[in-house]
Every structure is written in structure tokens, then in C-alpha cells.
């Protein structure tokens, strides 16, 4: 058994909150299972909260306060922890960012921009500068830090199985200077290969498809219903209505069938990276 990794209380507000929760639980002589007993939550969720990886849902905070007799401590600080975790993330996406940490599978369709989990720092910065030119420099950097921090997802030994489908135009459109575009595409290929994930490209020749407007994400969980998340330029929506979730999943399956094979897609990404790299060398 590997040694337990205790959270560093000084690392962040969520880590402090999680460390305090673990200390109080163990002081009370309770296991994770014993503490969540009587709530609608599971021990794995509580464990991640203790490690500072997730915020605590309000219903669980109330339950923990009653069980540990902490006088409402966790309920009072619940929202502050959530705000700390959401720093730099769009309000409408904050809950989804937490969901991806505990998801079992993530299936993503990206017609307009490379998905956040696959973006390099340079790509994030360019999107922020061009998509929201009114942002001050410090706000841009805060957004960049938050987006890059999400890439810790790939360092987790139990991260969700990822399947992404990208519009081919995303690797053809020079969003960045050639050298940085090469870095971005090499990064995608490296992440997909090292994490044993799946990436497909929907070819430009496929002029129409089942979901042509907006990003789509489908997430499954070990202890919760499937949800879908759709996003446009300045808004996003979590959908958990089962019939509608099923419709989106069917549409995603049609995209999967119309896309190039994973092998051909990765080869195309790597070939495009070499093309950008050559172009950058020609400019030197």
C-alpha cells in the first residue's frame, strides 16, 4: 500500500479546508465511510475533498457539521472554498471543472477551439486576448493560470478515460505563430499518447454533422447520473434531463462514426505539427 499523501494546508484555501476536515474526522475516530453514512454522498468524494481536490457540496457540509459537532464551520466556509476553487474560471464552467476531476469518462466535441484540457499556455493566452480584448493583463494571466492548472487532470492516476473529437480546421487554422502552433499540436499528440486517450478529427470535407454549433461534453460518474455540457462563446449549460442527455449522446456517436480513425487523426496532427515547425524554421 502506498503511503498516504496528506494535503498541504498552506497550498490553498481548499487544501486548508480539506486538511481541517481530515484532522477533525480522525480526531473523532471516524473512517470516511462512517462520516458519510446517512448522507447522499460517497467516501471517494469525501476523500478528494480532504485532499483539496474538490469543493464540498452544501448538503455534505451540513451533514459533516452535525456528525462532527463543529458548530456550522464547514457550512459557513463552504462557499468561500468554492469561490477559491473557481478563481480564474468562468462562473458557468466552475462546476463542470470540478465534475471532470471525479468523472469516469469524458467525451468531448470541439468545433471551434481546442479543448481546455489540451491547450498550451500560449494558446490559452491568445484565446483570452482575442476573445476578450477588454480584459486587463492581470485578468488574462489569472485566466491562463486557471486553465493551465486544469491540466493537472492528466497527472492523476485515476483520471477519466478521455475521448475527444476535434474539427480538422482547428489544426489547419494558424491561431498562433508557426512555432507555437507546432508546440500546441505536439502537446496534443503527447498527451493523448501518454494517457492512452482517444482523439479523432472530423474532416473538413464533412460539411454537415449532428452537432455543428457549440462545444459538447458528455461525462459519466461512478456514483451519479450522466450529464452533458454545452458551451458557446460566453455561456454554458449543464444538462441532466435523461431524454435530452440521450439525444446528445446519440449525436456524439454519429460524430464518432463520421470522424477519422484515432490512428489517422493522430498522424494528421503530428504531420501538421511538422509542417508548422518547418514553416517556423523558414522564417528564421
Listing every helix as H and every strand as E from the N terminus to the C terminus, the arrangement reads HHHHHHEHHEHHEEEEHH
CATH topology of the largest domain: Endonuclease, Chain A
Note the main sheet.
6 strands, mixed
Number of strands: 6
* Number of separate domains: 2
Distance between the termini: 53 Å
Number of helices: 12
Which strand-content bin applies to the residues? 5-15%
The average pLDDT value, as a whole number, equals 86
Q: What is the spatial order of strands in the main beta sheet?
A: 3-2-1-4-5-6
- Regions with little confidence, pLDDT below 50 for 5+ residues: none
Using the CA coordinates, give the radius of gyration: 21 Å
Overall 3D form: globular
CATH class of the largest domain: Alpha Beta
The residue fraction in helices comes out at 40-55%
CATH second-level architecture of the largest domain: 2-Layer Sandwich
The assigned structural class equals alpha/beta
Protein name: Transcriptional regulator
InterPro entries: Cro/C1-type_HTH (IPR001387), DUF5753 (IPR043917), Lambda_DNA-bd_dom_sf (IPR010982)
Pfam families: DUF5753
Domain DUF5753: 93-270
Amino acid at each position: 500500500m502506498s503511503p498516504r499523501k496528506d494535503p498541504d494546508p498552506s497550498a490553498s484555501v481548499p487544501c486548508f479546508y480539506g486538511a481541517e476536515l481530515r484532522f477533525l474526522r480522525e480526531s473523532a475516530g471516524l473512517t470516511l465511510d462512517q462520516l458519510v453514512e446517512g448522507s447522499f454522498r460517497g467516501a471517494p468524494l469525501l476523500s478528494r475533498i480532504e485532499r483539496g481536490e474538490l469543493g464540498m457540496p452544501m448538503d455534505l457540509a451540513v451533514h459533516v457539521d452535525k456528525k462532527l459537532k463543529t458548530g456550522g464551520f464547514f457550512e459557513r466556509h463552504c462557499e468561500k472554498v468554492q469561490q477559491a476553487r473557481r478563481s480564474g474560471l468562468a462562473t458557468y464552467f466552475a462546476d463542470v471543472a470540478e465534475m471532470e476531476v471525479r468523472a469516469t469518462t469524458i467525451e468531448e466535441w470541439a468545433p471551434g477551439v481546442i479543448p481546455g484540457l489540451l491547450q498550451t499556455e500560449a494558446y490559452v493566452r491568445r484565446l483570452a486576448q482575442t476573445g476578450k480584448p477588454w480584459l486587463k493583463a492581470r485578468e488574462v494571466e489569472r485566466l491562463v493560470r486557471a486553465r493551465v492548472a486544469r491540466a493537472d487532470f492528466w497527472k492523476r492516476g485515476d483520471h477519466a478515460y478521455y475521448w475527444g473529437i476535434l474539427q480538422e480546421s482547428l489544426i489547419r487554422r494558424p491561431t498562433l505563430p508557426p512555432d507555437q502552433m507546432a508546440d500546441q499540436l505536439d502537446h496534443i499528440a503527447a498527451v493523448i499518447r501518454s494517457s492512452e486517450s482517444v482523439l479523432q478529427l472530423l474532416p473538413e470535407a464533412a460539411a454537415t454533422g449532428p452537432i455543428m454549433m457549440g462545444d459538447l461534453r458528455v461525462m459519466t460518474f461512478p456514483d451519479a447520473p450522466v450529464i452533458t455540457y454545452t458551451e458557446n462563446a460566453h455561456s454554458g449549460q449543464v444538462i441532466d434531463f435523461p431524454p435530452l442527455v440521450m439525444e446528445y449522446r446519440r449525436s456524439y456517436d454519429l460524430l464518432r462514426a463520421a470522424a477519422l480513425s484515432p490512428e489517422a487523426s493522430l498522424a494528421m496532427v503530428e504531420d501538421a505539427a511538422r509542417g508548422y515547425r518547418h514553416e517556423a524554421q523558414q522564417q528564421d
